[in-house]
Amino acid sequence: MTLAITGATGQLGRLVLDRLTALGHPATGLARRPGPDQRLFDYDRPDTLAPALAGIDSLLLISGSEIGRRVAQHRAVIDAAVAAGVRRITYTSLLRADRSILSLAEEHRQTEAMLAASGLTVTILRNGWYHENYLAGIPAALQHGVLMGSAGQGRIASAARADYAEAAVAVLLGPGHDSQTYELAGAPTWTLADLAAQISQQTGRDIPYRDLPEADYAAVLAGAMPAPLAQVYAGLDAAAAQGALDGDGAVLARLIGRPSQPLAEAVRAALA
């Protein structure tokens, strides 16, 4: 079986490729800006797609990062995979994509529907939240002396990006995963107040969590990013307050053969 990984130079793709190599199963990396021994693969340039998939049996399609453009991009990849004779696609979707209230979910729902209609053998990895999505805010929290958000007491079932990469490798290499959909999340769950407490404990500083209305949090974020993107992120927090980022960590733990990385360990690594 010949494997290929899209987004090979991205954060998740690199981890998957490194894990496969460490296990003695090197794969072909596909990327918009390919590194050594990787193939050019640009979601926005369909002419690059089918040629790059020549000789590939199994493809890990890591969802694109450009919100609003992913349906067309993913459609181009799926069409190219069919044309190139790829037999199996494993796709990184979103936790409970079929019913999630997250604004990100619709593009994943449409992609899953396209995959179901493709005639290919498909495995869906519905990844929950990454620790890193919130750990990226630690420097700002330390700078301002407060962790701000709009998630209330919503539980967050995140896991490290490396945990999701390890699960992807387990599915790519192991038997019995064809036509399966896996809901993947970390454990134990936590709140933004818990994150603030961990930052405080590990730095010896008092970093409280300040919960803001969604519009107010969007205004804060707009100081560091374009306003439309700030509204998206604030909306994700507001959805978290309604349970959109909560989940059961059992499936991820079973796939990787161990518990996912706990929040305290992730905070410790981020601070280091």
From TrEMBL:
Domain NAD(P)-binding: 7-172
CDD domains: TMR_SDR_a
Alphabetical list of SUPFAM superfamilies matching this protein: NAD(P)-binding Rossmann-fold domains
Gene3D superfamilies reported for this sequence: NAD(P)-binding Rossmann-like Domain, UDP-galactose 4-epimerase, domain 1
Name this protein carries in UniProt: SDR family oxidoreductase
Originating organism: Paracoccus hibiscisoli
